[in-house]
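Entry type: protein chain
Record version: 2
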Amino acid sequence: MAPGAARIRLRQRWQSVHALLVLPVLLIVVITVADLRLPWDIHLGPALVIAPALTPSFAGPRATAGIGALALTAQLLIGVHRGGLATTNHIVQIITLAILVVLTVVYSVLRERRQTQLAKVRTVAEAAQHVLMWPLPEQIGPLRIASLYLAAEDEAQIGGDLYAAAVCDGSVRLLIGDVRGKGLPAIGEAALLLGSFRESAYRHIPLDELATRLDQSVTRYAADLETPEEEGERFATALLVDIPDRDPVTRMTSCGHPPPLLLSPGHVVTVPSLHPSPPLGVHAGAEHTLDVFSFEPGDTLLLYTDGVMEARDEHGRFYPLADRVARWTGDSPEALMHHLRRDLLAHVGGRLGDDAALIAVHRTPVERRHHGRGEMARHG
């Protein structure tokens, strides 16, 4: 974040905290005035504890201690006005309020420390996400791209789902995958798969051969790190897609991964035919099928992980992805991701049971240039 933006946010937070501090101060004043004006047999002094108890919800330990001191001062004023501080009733009220104020300040200190720890966790998680999953570019040739990652584990920014893109000799290669498990334990396997893809995707090899190399990497990883209790449990699903810049014929290979959705103008959603092979790491030497489909200008290709399709609402119903995206076939990839994020979280009540990742790829028309005869000859 830029220093100027950080200063603005800090100033705004400072102003909002000081504006909220008016509430406990006003509460102390109202309780004190009311207690002084009410009959002698009615005591509102014990209600002063409400003010310092509210303060930690929006302010730190210092502000909480200040409000607590103000509440104690008000209690002393009430005691003096009500017959002196030597009475047993007022002594008990003052001691009780002082103890409650101390406990509230201690709670505020612990709460602020916890918030600092959570902020550090978020920072580390964001750094890990950027190191492992580089942000996808918004535009590659004729393709506009947007992505969305929703981690199921609290305070995590990355888990077992993954995606990556590579430019390869006039085409774009995309990987979306799902490592078994979720959250931090799956990051190691996700990193391995991403590294293997980035190493091999640029070598102009067919997708089925690329899938074989990824399969070998996952198999070696499982052989080296798999414990007897985990035998056969380390695997990953993956979908590889090769999208040429100027040819609508798009190729894909699935290793146990759900098929993409093809969104066309007019609220049309189709599922390209897919012949998946077993997930990576399950069957060494498995053959991988190369499927093709037409991805025309104006269409949007939506890749996703099973955490999206298997998201359930409170009644156990799965998220109807194809039906929902039919509403937004004419939207940009960025708008589509925005709609899906909001709609998916609303469907599950705000929290996913598994990591979820999505990539939206929109093909824009390629500008045709007029070539002279010499240039036409050079390009065949």
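Comment: The CA atoms of residues 38 and 44 lie 9 Å apart.
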